[in-house]
Amino acid sequence: KQEVTQIPAALSVPEGENLVLNCSFTDSAIYNLQWFRQDPGKGLTSLLLIQSSQREQTSGRLNASLDKSSGRSTLYIAASQPGDSATYLCAVYNQGGKLIFGQGTELSVKP
Amino acid sequence: GAVVSQHPSRVICKSGTSVKIECRSLDFQATTMFWYRQFPKQSLMLMATSNEGSKATYEQGVEKDKFLINHASLTLSTLTVTSAHPEDSSFYICSARAGGATNEKLFFGSGTQLSVL
Fold it and tell me: Which of A47, A88, B62, B110 would bridge A35 by S-S if both were Cys, CB 3.0 to 4.6 A apart?
């Protein structure tokens, strides 16, 4: 059974700092991996989708990497801003197309 | 990108009543939709997979008679929480897949916050 774990569960940083969020999964037989952002009481905003054949994806200040063999992914946020404060969710696409989520990292960026 | 509309965004109901949540794909046909539940401070847990024109497939531990799913068209899936109780209070969110391939990207609705009194 696929399990997705995110570390840390919560993170507080001062504005401007670069940071890394970690995601690990137990079954390397995944199709894709996707990072989402969720604001309190809201739905999900897709940030980056990495296909299984790719090593990383970049969008603006965000960079996500994928190492299937070790079952790990990281989300790098450069020059963090207070507006980046949210919960970040990592999810993997299993065989059958199901999306399995990690428990999320709650990020707080202090001005 | 594709848009998935979920309605209502928030509902408060009395214990024992039934609540219907709609999930619509606005600009694409969704052969498969997924329903998730999220408790406070927890991640999204997959409840069921809904395929157009066939019965939904429920995850282990999810009561199919409690959570009725109907996917009658390629643009609409509904989740009905029957005889709701306070423990059913949660954030429910749907997602839809545009293509038939299992690795197609999923698009998410904005979620429904259900509060059962």
Answer: A47
Stated length of chain A: 111
Q: Which of A51, A96, A101 sits opposite B43 (nearest CB)?
A: A101
- Check: CB of residue A75 under 8 Å from CB of residue A7: no
Gap from B15 CA to chain A (nearest CA, Å): 22
Q: Testing the interface with B: which of A2, A21, A44, A94 to mutate, by most B Cβ within 10 A? A: A44
User: Residue-wise pLDDT tens for chain B (117 aa)?
Assistant: 678 999 999 999 999 999 999 999 998 888 889 999 998 878 899 999 988 888 899 999 999 999 999 988 889 999 999 999 999 999 999 999 876 665 567 889 999 999 999
Q: What part of A 58-87 touches B (C-beta under 8 Å)?
A: none
Decide: residue A111, CB within 10 A, 0-12 exposed, 13-18 middle, 19+ buried.
exposed
Q: Are A26 and A3 in contact (CB under 8 A)?
A: yes
The percent of chain B in helix, strand and coil, each rounded to the nearest 5, is 5, 50, 45
